[in-house]
Amino acid sequence: MFRLMRLKPPNGWNAVAWELLIVTAGVLIALGAQEFVQGLHWKRDVGETRQALDAELSRDLAVFNFRRDLNECITARMSELRRWAESFRTGKPLHLKHEIVNTPGFTIRTEVWDLIDNNIASRIPLQDRLNYAGLYANMKTFRDGRLGEAEAWGEIIALQRESSLDDTEIRTIVNAADDMVGASDALAVWDTAMKRQARELGIVPDPTLWRTADPFMHRLKQDACKPYL
159 — phi, psi (to 5°)? Predict the structure, then answer.
């Protein structure tokens, strides 16, 4: 131990301390540079992910608005179909002016949200993350509701060519029509929440959805809103 204490570096202890300081500074600079590069990497990935989320939700909001804007039309058509079904009870059924047409619409997409990396999601500010989660939850509920609407339409369309309807079939049409009206009314509740969430995220409905839609969709929308009686 005594010998170790008497050791002297060739250039003195000051030189050793200086070399240690340089090495330590180099390590800290390297770590800082690595942290900086990783920070840039995460910032880029988060930014690209948010752009993809915003684009997907912008389209979904336009899809939702398209269906919501059909509420008045759908409610009027359901009223007519109830009258048509109930007219069979009188023995003098009303005649439909044209084939029953399902409510047209576009597909809700959630692929970006479903595939988002947890490491990236955790780096999105909490309030924004909550707004994204809320919007996508409402969109998925809306998508499930559209499936329910398709089932209701299927029940009505399956009976449209019948020359007579029994009491069970009449109730089937009336109940399906009521379900459609209820689904339309529910859209107003989702609309209020989603507008707030979208506004806080700076997302607006895609204005090109309807302009670039297949011409068949335009005709289908017109046919779906033509009076049945």
Answer: -110, 0
- Please, which pLDDT band fits residue 2 given cuts at 50, 70 and 90? very low
Total structural domains in the chain?
A: 1
pLDDT single digits (tens) 121-159: 888 999 999 999 999 999 999 999 999 999 999 999 999
Tokens describing residue 131: 């707004």
State which amino acid sits at residue 155. E
Per-residue pLDDT at 20: 60
State pLDDT tens for residues 54-86: 999 999 999 999 999 999 999 999 999 999 999
62 in Cβ contact with 210 (< 8 Å): yes
In a domain, 37, yes or no: yes
Kindly report the average pLDDT of the chain as a whole number: 86
Range of the domain at 207: 11-224
Instruction: Let me know if residue 229 belongs to a domain.
Output: no
Domain contains 5: no
- Report if residue 177 sits inside a domain: yes
- The string of DSSP codes covering 189-223 is HHHHHHHHHHHHHT----THHHHTS-HHHHHHHHH
Q: What is the DSSP letter of 226?
A: S
98 DSSP 8-state letter: S
| Phi and psi based region of residue 7 (left: phi greater than 0; alpha: psi -120 to 50; beta: remaining) | beta
Q: How far apart are the first and last CA of the chain?
A: 108
